[in-house]
Every structure is written in C-alpha cells, then in structure tokens.
Amino acid sequence: MSHQDSDVVLSVRDLSVVYGAPAKGRKRKSAPPAVAVDHVSLDLKAGECIGLIGESGSGKSTFGYAIMNLLPKPGRITNGKIELLGSGDLVRLDNRRLAAIRGKQIGMVFQGAQSMFNPLMTIQDHLRDIFRVHGVDNQTGLNEAKELMNRARLDVGRVLRSYPHELSGGMRQRVAIVASVMMKPDVLILDEPTTALDALSQTLVLDILRDIRSVQSMAMIFITHDFAVASNIGDRIAVMYAGQMVEVGPVLDVYRRASHPYTRGLIASVPSLTRADGELAGVPGQPPNMSDLPKGCRFADRCNLVTEQCRTRVPETLTVGNEHDVMCVRAIEIGEEVSVHV
Ligand SMILES: Nc1ncnc2c1ncn2[C@@H]1O[C@H](COP(=O)(O)OP(=O)(O)OP(=O)(O)O)[C@@H](O)[C@H]1O
After folding, report:
1. What's the whole-number average pLDDT of the chain?
2. ipTM (interface predicted TM)
3. Which residues belong to any copy of the ABC transporter domain (predicted)?
C-alpha cells in the first residue's frame, strides 16, 4: 500500500518476515515457518504519524522490529526493502552502520519500555551511554535531555538521580520516550507505549508525544490495538490483519468510510474493544493460524460480507479514496454503503 511522494522518509516495500528456520532437505520435522508479515508496503511521510492497529498476533510488533532490523530469533526478513531517507535500504546494511542509525535517524520505544533500563544504572547514566554511542558532548546532551524532560512533565533533578525501580511505570515510559527522541530521529516507532498505563498516564504520554512533535519534526508509527488511541494520535490509520496491511488511509476517511469489514468491526468494537472471552466485540471469531493460512482472503471465516470468490481468490488492494487503500474485493461497495449511513 503506497503512494509515491517526494517527502517520504521511510518507504517499506513488499516486506515479508517469517519466524522459523528455512527448510533443509525434503523432510521437515519442526513446525512450518509462520509468515508474520506478508508482502507489506507502507510509506511514512516527514512529520506524519501513522496509527498502526490490529489484534494481538496480527504482526504489528514484528513490522516495527523489522523496520529497525532488530527481529528476535527465529524471525528473519525474507523479502522486501526498507528505505530510510539518506540511509539506504536498512535490510542490506551491516550491523555497524545499523547501530549508528538506530537512535539517531530512527528510534523505537518498545512494548513495556521499562525493560530497556539496566536496574543498576541511574537515568543519568543511561543518558550518558546514549551520548557516548552517538558522540555527543555530555553537557550538550544533558541540556537537551533536561529540556525534553521538562516537556515530558518530569521532575528533572529527581529523575536523573533515580534508578529505574524508583520511578513509576508511567514515568519510566516518559523517560524512555525522552531517551528515544533525544537524538532527534526522523522516524520514531512506538510499540504500544500506553498499553500498560492507567488512563491518566496514557493521556499524558499522548500529549507529550504531540508536544514533542510540535517542536521537532518527527514521523511516527504508533502501534496499538486500540482504534480510539490510533485515531487520536494518528494522521493516517493502517490496519493489519494476519500479517497483511488490509486498510490504510487518512484518519477521518477511514473513520467515515471504513471499507474493509475488519476495520468496520474494529470501529464497532470501540469503546469496549474486547469481550470477557478475549474476542473483539465487533469481530466474532479468531484470526487464522499463521502457519496454515487459508487460500483466499484471510478474513473470510470471520467476515459477515463473505462471498464465494473470497474463499478462493486473494484480494487485490483497491484504492477507494485519496491515499485510502483497501485489501478487499468488496471494498468499493462497502465504503459506499458505510458513507450513506454516517
Ligand atoms: N519470537 C517469536 N517466535 C515465533 N513466533 C513469533 C515470535 N514473535 C511473534 N511471533 C508470531 O508472529 C505473529 C505476529 O506477532 P506480533 O507480536 O508481531 O503481533 P502483534 O500484532 O504485535 O501482537 P501484540 O499486539 O500481541 O503485540 C504471531 O503469530 C506470533 O505468534
């Protein structure tokens, strides 16, 4: 899903990620490899925020880790390109070059970012490490960090002296954000940065991200399973289902004219996203097994608009509006029907 644009900072083309070792010889005893991200393309423009949503297991985190070229084993990129403006194809860079780019040109705040901290080091020690890796003078770096901490409503003096366990989860998350934007990356990937936080801390983190974006131009991919959060922070929404990007478009367009039945289900699930049994309220059923995918559309078994051809034909991506792309054979009629009702 892509629209060539001159101000694109990150261009992902046809990216596939598999968990599992490649087959050796004819007989395979281990489980077949699971395709977690399957031929996904996405362009991120300078300064924009894409809210990337989807159920657990849809491949959102894998997509984020793959962009950083930091996949946990046995994950591996089997296809595609990740072009970062000015740095080339990240898939093909060596580790030394990647280490220099990570943090400086492209940053990531991980799911449960608290684990990024060494319990034996103060926050100031952590920051010093970052300055050292990127060759930044200690005092200059510290001044920059202090300003960002103020923006993140953190008590600078106390936080710098503290060990990670002395801070609350929300404070650690805010420090993680400060640490990841300190080098002013062009792109920041945030993997569920608000999931483990209470409602107040969630709102604060979203406000802080907005505030930081207003002073330093930075494109973001904000991964979440929550449509409301994605539409609150995002300029565009990207919806992943079973390793594929099934709908991408500007927030308002997707909201008003959701054209994939899965996206419609996600919207119908807001605000009570999941039921007690873990199913999405608006989308009954479970995603397919990623090691044994169906032949046609991956959503067919859960789709209330399924037709015979959906079970045999892999859907193409259709453009239903300006920068609004949908992977469903019925996207155009579904979009028209929805817009009549809003
Ligand atoms: N380290 C791993 N080893 C094997 N399979 C994995 C590994 N990590 C993820 N997977 C598989 O890849 C698929 C995508 O997982 P991923 O964590 O990227 O999804 P997600 O949308 O980020 O889910 P969540 O919202 O729960 O984080 C799933 O089928 C998952 O089981």
Report:
1. 88
2. 0.97
3. 12-267
